[in-house]
């Protein structure tokens, strides 16, 4: 029963364990508990930051939300509906609502496709009625939205800088007109000067399109700036959850304190 | 991408040379019925082991010398001074259906019977080696292309699916490839040939059988490498992006994975074509490949496993070996050139 009071996303006791297999028949000999019993909610139109060291399980949470990995247990409710164990065909409508932006701008665009083809793929899947002309017009519009020019669409990814590629990745995610975007360390691989531009772009888009973000980072400084609420993650578990201000001013968990110490003080 | 690659090949001297030479070979093979002065089985028992006829400029046109057999015991021929037969162009010949469709009743050049034009000598029944080389090149040159096509399709499918989906299919497919690779190739070829022989008897079918056998052995290596490359590509974020958009696995393989394997495939194809040419030659040499009345370079070589060829120095009968050698070298050098172009890093790995 979706209403304005239902959070857009509710995650309860989410577990993602990766089997360690061996032998001819892929016998299971152990598991990596990448995400272990994690709960949080994200309100519509807000940004929740997710911080933690590399390997703490942040990407895995993001991928579980968008079903790039299968959850092992727990529940994920989107707009009040349980989507945890939907089959791929049942999950398909959510592929139009939930999108992802990747950390590595150099590998997130297929080097063999033009920018038009990369962004147009999203349109072909979710707006099959669109003709070629309409798609070109829409791609041009999307490129404008992320601060690129329409004439960029017939070029290949290698002709762009890291920041520009990240913008293209954002345009691809926006193409399906999503409500919720998992931003998996979208600025970690970029120069500091470019980082601010991309963060500002994401904030502008959020305002304009009413987007909801899960913003993943390994460094509290970036997250603090953009997030309404912050989750701190360590070894597959959430060790602290509070508003950005509270985390910054009054960290409770020793791990959070260590993360904070790593942030350069001005 | 493809036109770009072509351009780069042509800019390198070795690449341009090999490509042009190979294209000439294939054109010659394609037009063999027009270019060859004689049919493959056109015998002349009075001119066995005839040496290459001298071609001279005589009375304003090209002509061949005429020869006299001076010593039949060792096939010794001597040119008769002042005797020539003019070479005519676009001569009438028995009608032949080019590609099985277009009737052709001429050949590009020839001499009037009973004189004979032996550009590369004749064999033990007086058949023209040059003509047979041309016809034989059709088998030897196409076997590599068809073989590679089959190998690539199977290798891409099995390797691509194994790498993309992993799990039990992956294990089973990879154990299968290991099984094939663990058996020494030549034994497997001979065993398969023996086992399947009773189902294939005419010479066209044998050609197909040989291609199938060679591909059956060849796909395993391709599949393994494709699997490895797919595994590494599979975790690239652009594949995840396509999945997140709801793109189906087949389209992802086709649109995102395979195009990124293209440069690798083109290099391995070039470098493995010689294997097929040599495989056919080996089978035909052993007498279990292409059979008369068809001809191939391997078959031509097998027909000169005779001491007198060496004792009496009938060197022209070994030209099929030279043809194989040159073709293999051309493909290898071209493959190396393409490899340097598409991926300089591979240089040290392959
Ligand atoms: N597909 C996978 N198979 C096995 N283990 C994985 C897989 N993906 C991630 N892991 C493991 O899960 C843990 C968390 O990884 P990840 O979510 O990428 O962390 P982060 O994004 O915080 O750096 C790591 O130990 C990683 O090795
Ligand atoms: Mg990560």
List cofactors, ions and other ligands.
adenosine-5'-diphosphate, magnesium ion
CA-atom Rg of chain A in angstroms = 19 Å
Topology pattern of chain B, helix = H, strand = E: HHHEEEEHHHHHHHHHH
Name the shape of chain B in a single word. Answer: elongated
Report how far the terminal alpha carbons of chain A are from each other.
47 Å
Proportion in helices of chain B: 55-70%
Number of discrete helical segments of chain A: 9
User: Quick one: how many beta strands of chain B?
Assistant: 4
Structural class designation of chain B: alpha+beta
* Residues in helix, % of chain A: 25-40%
| Percent in strands of chain A | 25-35%
Beta fraction of the residues of chain B? 5-15%
- Radius of gyration of chain B (CA) equals 24 Å
Topology, number of strands of chain A: 10
Structure description:
- The complex is a heterodimer of chains A (266) and B (350).
- In chain A, 36% of the residues lie in helices and 27% in strands.
- Chain A is an alpha/beta fold and 266 residues long.
- In chain A, strands 6-7-8-3-9-10 form a six-stranded mixed beta sheet, sandwiched between helices.
- The radius of gyration of chain A is 19 Å and the shape is globular.
- Chain B has 350 residues and is an alpha+beta fold.
- Chain B has helices spanning 2-11, 13-30, 32-35, 129-165, 167-182, 185-196, 203-234, 237-244, 249-257, 262-285, 297-302, 307-311, 319-342; strands at 55-58, 61-71, 76-98, 102-111.
- In chain B, α4 packs parallel to α7 (203-234), α4 (129-165) runs parallel beside α13 and α7 runs antiparallel to α10.
- The radius of gyration of chain B is 24 Å and the shape is elongated.
- Classes of the chains: A alpha/beta (266), B alpha+beta (350).
- The structure holds adenosine-5'-diphosphate and magnesium ion.
- Residues 58-59, 185 of chain A line the site of magnesium ion.
- Residues 18, 32, 34, 52, 54-60 of chain A line the site of adenosine-5'-diphosphate.
